[in-house]
Inverse folding.
């Protein structure tokens, strides 16, 4: 499972996923990328604005820990500078994954995509193929369209892989 920003990421559903998959018999390793102080600061400012410096802003009151703190005692966790680094590629080669799941990563290299036996999947906040790339929720709102979450295989294009599942979700 590839994630970013271990100190900033605070989605309870991601923590729950990581904790529950091993309970269901899946062998899971989490690799966090974007781990430098500068990248964390940039992400925190983008996510929380300057409120980040004034007070701790917890968007999900039922989940007070960040994802890293919630999962570090449940699965193997590694931190890398970027998912496209040589260190990350060697790490994943040694793990020899059947499947890579990307949850909020940047664009990954073809070298990384070639590693898993089954493939790489991504959960995309948008209706594919109509809304690819970033800011898909904003484009959906702009065009007054239905909001969807789409799970798809990742290929060398950006959000162009085979769609596995697409579900409508409510705005909130």
């Amino acid at each position: 499972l590839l994630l970013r920003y271990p100190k900033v990421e605070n989605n309870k559903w991601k923590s729950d996923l990581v904790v529950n998959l091993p309970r269901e018999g899946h062998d899971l390793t989490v690799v966090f990328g974007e781990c430098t102080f500068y990248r964390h600061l940039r992400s925190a400012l983008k996510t929380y604005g300057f409120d980040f410096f004034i007070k701790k802003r917890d968007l999900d009151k039922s989940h007070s820990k960040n994802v890293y703190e919630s999962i570090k005692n449940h699965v193997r966790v590694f931190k890398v500078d970027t998912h496209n680094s040589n260190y990350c590629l060697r790490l994943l080669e040694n793990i020899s994954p059947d499947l890579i799941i990307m949850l909020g990563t940047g664009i990954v290299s073809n070298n990384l995509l070639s590693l898993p036996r089954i493939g790489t999947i991504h959960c995309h906040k948008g209706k594919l193929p109509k809304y690819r790339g970033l800011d898909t929720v904003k484009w959906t709102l702009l065009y007054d369209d239905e909001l969807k979450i789409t799970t798809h295989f990742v290929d060398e294009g950006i959000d162009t892989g085979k769609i596995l599942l697409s579900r409508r979700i409510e705005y909130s």
